[in-house]
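Q&A log
Question type: sequence-to-structure
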Amino acid sequence: MDELQNIQDLIYVIRGQRVMLDRDIALIYGVETKRINERVKRNPKRFAGDDFMFQLTKDELDIVRSRSQNATLNKGRGSNVKYLPYAFTQLGVSMLSSVLDSDTAIEANRRIMRAFVAFQNLVLEPPAKAYFELKQEIEKIKNEMNDILADQNDINEFTRAQLDAISTALAELQAKPAASKPRRPIGFT
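Response status: OK
Response body:
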């Protein structure tokens, strides 16, 4: 299970597809990245189309780097990316097993396929307990919001009644004629 989790950690979602990078596949297969890319270049018909593999752009590579490691340059020859890596979809990884024909490659491919399927199942069927708890929390928040809105509506009605009473009182005051008492003059006489 731990090995499956390690492989799942190497699966990225890029361009809306779940993919693995050539360097990660090479690590699992126990070969150099350039050997995988050589096999792919020798069999271009097997990998035609973006649904099998595609090359990352610089922006996509930066996003992958920020998720997996720091963006500083590593010391030593060959430790930095010189070429943009290839991303293999589940179909592409499956096709790799036909061009890399060794016992190690076949076993590694089986582990990778299991990781893709487990990843897909996790997305399609979220854990039931977490789903149920989330549903309960949403219901609780929904009920609280309904209570707040009902209270707000009561306050609005009460405020409206008070404003009507003030309007009525002002109208009555305006309607009464002011008592005609002689006013005392203001100022110096």
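Response note: The chain has two domains: 2-125, 126-173.
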